Amino acid sequence: MRFRKYHGLGNDYLVLEDGNLSPELVPAICDRHRGVGSDGVLEPVLGDGADYGLRIWNPDGSEAEKSGNGLRIYALWLGQHCRAPDDFTVSLPGGQVRCQVDGEMVTVQMGQATFEAGAIPATESMIFSPREVGEVVLPLTAVGVGNPHCVVFLETNLDSLPWREWGAALEVSPMFPNRTNVQFARVLDRNTIDVRVWERGAGETHASGSSACAVAAAAVRLEHCAGSITVKMPGGSLEVSVGRDYSLILRGPVTYVGEMTFEAEVR
């Protein structure tokens, strides 16, 4: 199997160029000690009413509906290796998006955020709603951006909290039928948010594009922030613009790592 590896602020993906994937094989490929190592695999597929199509594999072998960083990486790969134009559309289970490539800076129009329970999906609408998580009560905001998210706004320094433990518990909470991505956020000012990400199927992640979008949308919904928002994560910062209708535009850098190969019989 042949891949090209990229990362968006440390959130790394493999783009499949040759070979066939399966839910059983993906975890072996993504294993950072015995495999190639990555936060997921991007598989090119035919576009469903779009210029290109994409299937996103989580490192545990499950599939993701949408990934902001995955889309930005895929967009740069399409431009570098498939002669894609600078502006094109991509279809995936979480909806169709438009991508624009400017050097190593990639912008994705991510669609609209939703806070409706059925569309996320979640068992109920949650807007800064107190819910028990283990032995603590946390204010949860459920938001969908083509995939499910649970945003937790806190006022304490995030690294002083057991957010990984909380994230692992919330990911598999019955409140989210398809599991969920989890973000812990601290508003620094009207245009800046500090965030830690627990990604569904991957765990702690240096950065996440769809998570940045979910946090920004939730911050606008709760009137913490407005307009263009800088989302700061351990891997770096992404810019998210939130429209009045909660339409989302994500922008940030993508870095090429190199070409990788994987022998399918290796486990």
Gyration radius, in Å? 17 Å
Biggest sheet details: 18 strands, mixed
Silhouette:
globular
Distance between the termini: 14 Å
Number of helices: 4
Strand percent estimate: 35-45%
What's the pLDDT, averaged over the residues?
96
Structural class estimated from helices and strands: alpha+beta
As residue ranges, the low-confidence spans are none
**How many strand units?**
18
- What string, H for helix and E for strand, traces the elements in order? EEHEEEHEEEEEEHEEEHEEEE
**Helical proportion, percent range:** 10-25%
Topology:
Blueprint: E1 2-8, E2 11-18, H1 26-30, E3 41-45, E4 52-57, E5 63-64, H2 68-81, E6 87-92, E7 95-102, E8 105-112, E9 129-133, E10 136-144, E11 148-153, H3 163-171, E12 181-189, E13 192-199, E14 203-205, H4 209-221, E15 228-233, E16 236-242, E17 247-253, E18 255-261
